[in-house]
Amino acid sequence: MRHLRGLRLFALRVNGAMRYSSRFFLYGPIGLFVILVAAVAAQWFQAANAWGKRIDGLNGREIAPGITLHFAERQIGGFPFRVDTTFKNLRLSFAGPRALQWQAEGFALHRLTYGNNKIVFEAGGKQRLTWLDSKAETQNFVFLPGSVRGDALTDNGRLSRADIVLVALSSPTHRAAHLEVHLRHDPKVEAFDLIVFGNDITLPDRAALQTARIEARITMAQFLKGLMSGDADWRTALEAWRGGEGRIELVSIQTKDKANAVITKGRMTLDGDHALNGRFEKDAFGITAFESAPLY
């Protein structure tokens, strides 16, 4: 009898332990999942709240020396792994004698909650560029794109890469089926490599281009560090770049229309009056030499 009673007690203990073990393996993963979800949610709300306060504080103020941000409305979403910010009537103003402004009816920024050194952006609706010409008269360029998308990557707080893709640009004077701009920092030689290409491009008073491609290198990138990190006024950075004998080497310019194709190269520099000037070895875009109004 004593042996039977002992066996019964042992069986009850084993059975209870097994039931407890089964409950642990059933509810343990669920509890762990709930904890992870709560941690991710807390992280997102903390990041979104901090970003919202920061962006609201920058509205109407400089986001970098000489560059002011304006927007009418903003919304933040993207839970749980992204922070998405959408703006209405966003405007960037660049100080200087040209008083350049860019305005977009709609604009959005997307970045991951974790590892946020990459930002993806897109613009929609009517876009407007406004500036003052050499006679201090206001000029406007208004266009409607099918889509504008891009991304920017930073390295140690400095812009190291940027890409922009524009589809179906349409304006009264300019059209393009497709345009792309790619900028890369090459730390080995302290230069920026720039590639711009597009197709089905219509320019005023010129034959329509089936394709156009520009490959260029911006030298002396070390003088543009302050500009790429947002710490220096863009005019100060350009003046340092000009003083350091920085230039834009047009490695290759290729254009093709229905009549012919042109391959050439050239160089652009900032002169003492802060005007951008350059020359092509062969005729490109209908010109062989050009000079801009002073930029700053």
Could you characterize what this model shows?
The protein is an alpha+beta fold. It has one domain. 24% of the residues lie in helices and 52% in strands. It has three helices and 16 strands. The protein has helices at residues 2-58, 225-229, 234-243, and strands spanning 62-64, 67-70, 73-77, 82-94, 100-112, 118-132, 138-143, 147-155, 158-170, 175-186, 191-202, 209-218, 248-257, 261-270, 275-284, 287-294. It has a 16-stranded antiparallel β-sheet that branches. A hairpin with a 4-residue loop joins strand 14 (261-270) and strand 15. The N and C termini lie far apart (104 Å). The model has no long low-confidence stretch (mean pLDDT 87).
Computed Rg:
29 Å
Helix count equals: 3
Q: Kindly estimate the percentage of residues that lie in beta strands according to DSSP.
A: over 45%
Largest sheet: 16 strands, antiparallel
How do the helices and strands follow one another from N- to C-terminus? HEEEEEEEEEEEEHHEEEE
Low-confidence sequence ranges: none
Number of distinct beta strands: 16
Shape: globular
- Structural class, from helix and strand content? alpha+beta
Binned, the helix content reads 10-25%
The average pLDDT value, as a whole number, equals 87
Distance between the termini: 104 Å
Q: Describe the oligomeric state of these chains in a short phrase.
A: single chain
What is the count of structural domains? 1
